[in-house]
């Protein structure tokens, strides 16, 4: 592969030389390819039309699990199998699935067109779990989605007013590099867990290799084989290495399931496939049910549980959404070689605003807040550098509403291999951290290690912010701490103590 996650792609001007004009993706001038190249600045960013399409496809397949997983988290196929809210209401899984594909597709396309970055958006796993496990214990599902909409509106306001951009500029470069590395470790850990390569232990250490220290399941073996195939292809510089690896691994998975009848993972079959069983069924398409569109109550929660309690819920949503997305975009932009020396990237403000709109649309469609996905790193590792890749990913998400049976053929173990490979590439940014100065090293280390160990990008950023302020103040470097760092660090202290604070307020 000619471009990898650790490469720094230097933008070059298009049209300054005859060579540049001749190598443009759409050198046909006003033709479709020429229009795409000019709008998305494909050649200028050192990419090609083929890489953008390939990267968009890879990003979709590494994110496609959300179309199946999100309905299982938020809803169910009956009231007995779904998270039930305080009034006994529940969300039908097939309707959640349809809205998940619709909002992910629409917002990813909008993000690609407006922000021109190769990032995919979909329902955020942290927030959807928070809604299903905690929020609906006190409010109804429509009221919970109303809180998500309010959260999104606030984030849009922060983006439009420049508050989000100002906070981004206040983050030291060591922490920005640590965020990238932390995300690399985070998605690697996600890949290990999703594939069964790492599992919980009944007692003793928190995690273990496979089952009692051994790889015993066929799906996990498929993950290992897929990872080695992708790694070998990347090492040889093969174009489309990740996509080729996904296709080969999926074919192996389908064959293994057809021959061995492995089945889905259950209590009685712990060594089965996690989430998706790779079976080619006779049905490849179905009509989506959009009944949940507009099923939200904007201020009902404030009436039901009171203004203070509802405000604390909004605060939690905003902090999680705000910093998860900021950290993810920072890491992805650096991984794509699109970040400037100060860590900013092209169309920063537009990216922040559209990401906020993702939260609004997710709440309005009852699919939960939509945010930038770290899985986009897989498409970037495939060479994607522009919003055209995001448009491709978005179109595939829209198609997934009709082809859910076909989407589910790719098992999560195969997507996990792509995440681990890209996590490897992202960790190259560790060289940007100044480990010789302890006041930089400790906050950076806490940032990158907290993300995978707490399964949260926001937690890692918070730990790094607080440590940076405390340690650098103790080292006499308090004048070099941006005032916004103090404010955000104080906010994270409240965020980490939100449980006891909520109890006190109630």
Short description:
This protein has 506 residues and is an all-alpha fold. It contains 22 helices and 4 strands.
Give an overview of the whole structure.
The protein is mainly alpha-helical and 506 residues long. The chain is built from 22 helices and four strands. It has helices spanning 18-22, 32-40, 49-63, 65-74, 93-115, 125-133, 141-161, 163-170, 173-195, 218-235, 241-260, 300-305, 307-335, 348-364, 376-381, 387-400, 404-407, 412-426, 438-454, 457-474, 483-496, 498-505, and strands spanning 121-123, 198-200, 207-209, 370-372. The strands form two sheets. Strands 1-4 form a two-stranded antiparallel sheet. Strands 2-3 form a two-stranded antiparallel sheet. Strand 2 and strand 3 (207-209) form a beta hairpin. Helix 5 (93-115) packs antiparallel against helix 16 (387-400) and helix 9 runs parallel beside helix 19. It is globular. The termini are far apart.
Describe the protein's topology.
Blueprint: H1 18-22, H2 32-40, H3 49-63, H4 65-74, H5 93-115, E1 121-123, H6 125-133, H7 141-161, H8 163-170, H9 173-195, E2 198-200, E3 207-209, H10 218-235, H11 241-260, H12 300-305, H13 307-335, H14 348-364, E4 370-372, H15 376-381, H16 387-400, H17 404-407, H18 412-426, H19 438-454, H20 457-474, H21 483-496, H22 498-505
Antiparallel strand pairs: 1-4, 2-3
Helix pairs in contact: 3-16, 4-5, 4-6, 5-14, 5-16, 7-13, 7-14, 9-13, 9-18, 9-19, 9-20, 10-11, 10-18, 11-18, 13-14, 13-20, 19-20, 20-21
Strand residues, percent: under 5%
Are there runs of 5+ residues with pLDDT below 50, and where? Answer: 1-28
SS field, number of helical segments: 22
Structural class: mainly alpha
């Amino acid at each position: 592969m000619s471009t990898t996650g650790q490469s720094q792609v230097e933008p070059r001007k298009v049209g300054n030389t005859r060579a540049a004009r001749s190598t443009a993706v759409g050198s046909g001038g006003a033709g479709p390819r020429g229009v795409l190249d000019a709008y998305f600045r494909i050649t200028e960013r050192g990419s090609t039309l083929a890489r953008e399409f390939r990267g968009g496809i890879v990003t979709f397949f590494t994110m496609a699990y959300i179309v199946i997983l999100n309905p299982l988290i938020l809803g169910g196929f009956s009231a007995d199998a779904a998270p039930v809210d305080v009034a006994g209401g529940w969300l039908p899984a097939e309707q959640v699935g349809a809205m998940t594909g619709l909002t992910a597709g629409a917002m990813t396309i909008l993000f690609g067109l407006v922000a021109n970055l190769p990032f995919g958006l979909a329902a955020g796993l942290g927030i959807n779990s928070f809604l299903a496990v905690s929020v609906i214990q006190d409010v109804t599902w429509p009221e919970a989605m109303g809180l998500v909409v309010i959260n999104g509106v606030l984030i849009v306001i922060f983006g439009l007013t420049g508050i989000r951009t100002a906070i981004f500029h206040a983050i030291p470069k060591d922490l920005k590099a640590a965020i990238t590395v932390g995300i690399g470790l985070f998605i690697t850990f996600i890949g290990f867990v999703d594939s069964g390569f790492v599992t919980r232990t009944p007692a003793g250490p928190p995690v273990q290799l496979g089952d009692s220290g051994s790889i015993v399941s066929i799906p996990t073996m498929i993950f290992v084989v897929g990872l080695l195939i992708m790694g070998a292809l990347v090492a040889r510089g093969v174009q489309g290495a990740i996509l080729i690896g996904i296709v080969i691994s999926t074919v192996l998975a389908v064959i293994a399931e057809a021959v061995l009848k492995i089945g889905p993972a259950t209590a009685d079959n712990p060594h089965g496939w996690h989430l998706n069983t790779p079976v080619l069924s006779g049905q490849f398409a179905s009509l989506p049910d959009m009944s949940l569109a507009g099923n939200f109550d904007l201020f009902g929660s404030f009436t039901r549980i009171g203004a203070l309690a509802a405000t604390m819920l909004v605060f939690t949503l905003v902090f999680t959404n705000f910093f998860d997305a900021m950290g993810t975009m920072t890491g992805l932009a650096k991984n794509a070689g699109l970040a400037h020396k100060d860590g900013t990237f092209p169309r920063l403000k537009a990216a922040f605003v559209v990401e906020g709109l993702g939260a609004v649309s997710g709440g309005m469609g009852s699919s939960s807040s939509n945010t930038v996905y770290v899985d986009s790193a897989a498409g970037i590792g495939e060479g994607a550098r522009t919003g055209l890749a995001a448009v491709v990913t978005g179109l595939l998400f829209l198609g997934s509403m009709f082809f859910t049976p076909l989407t589910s053929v790719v098992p999560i173990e195969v997507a996990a291999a792509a995440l681990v490979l890209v996590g490897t590439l992202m960790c190259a940014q560790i060289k940007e951290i100044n480990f010789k100065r302890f006041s930089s090293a400790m906050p950076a280390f806490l940032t990158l290690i907290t993300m995978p160990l707490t399964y949260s990008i926001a937690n890692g950023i918070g730990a790094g912010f607080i440590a940076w302020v405390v340690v650098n103040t103790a080292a006499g470097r308090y004048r070099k701490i941006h005032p916004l760092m103090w404010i955000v660090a104080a906010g994270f202290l409240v965020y980490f103590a939100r449980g006891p604070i909520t109890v006190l307020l109630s």
